[in-house]
Each structure stands twice: as C-alpha cells, then as structure tokens.
Design a protein that fits this description.
single chain; two-stranded antiparallel sheet; 2 helices; 23% strand; 34% helix; 74 residues
Length: 74
C-alpha cells in the first residue's frame, strides 16, 4: 500500500491492517516496521472479497481463488 500518511491510515483502518515504524537505529539509521501480513483478495471493482492468512500454501490460495471465480461466473 502506498500514499500519504492520511491515505494509508484511512485504508489501514478500513481493512484492519496494522503497522508501526520503530525509531531508527542510532548507529545505522536503519528502522524496522512491524505490520500485519494478511493477503487481501479484491474483485475487479476494487471491493474486498476475502482475506487469506500469510503463509497459506500456494495450492490452498489457488483453490480459494478458483472457488471465488466459479462463484462469480468467471
């Protein structure tokens, strides 16, 4: 996801996404961002259809997508 802070906050809130940037390491300037790891499936109109847990095996993702496509006549 990308956008300005307000746009990201609005979309994050709408979809229940989480992120938190931690302060930079004083020695390197590197930083860490904790964030949710959920896969959002959207329809062609951009509407949320369902989510999948990160780490879902590829064959299970493919099965879920096939079921959704059959339900929608695609």
């Amino acid at each position: 996801m990308t956008g300005d802070k307000q746009q990201i906050a609005a979309v994050s809130h709408k979809y229940g996404a989480y992120s938190e940037r931690h302060p930079p390491d004083p020695g390197t300037g590197d930083y860490v961002v904790d964030h949710s790891t959920y896969i959002y499936i959207m329809n062609p109109s951009g509407k949320f259809v369902r989510g999948l847990q990160a780490g879902t095996p590829g064959d299970a993702m493919a099965d879920a997508l096939r079921r959704l496509m059959r339900q929608n006549g695609e």
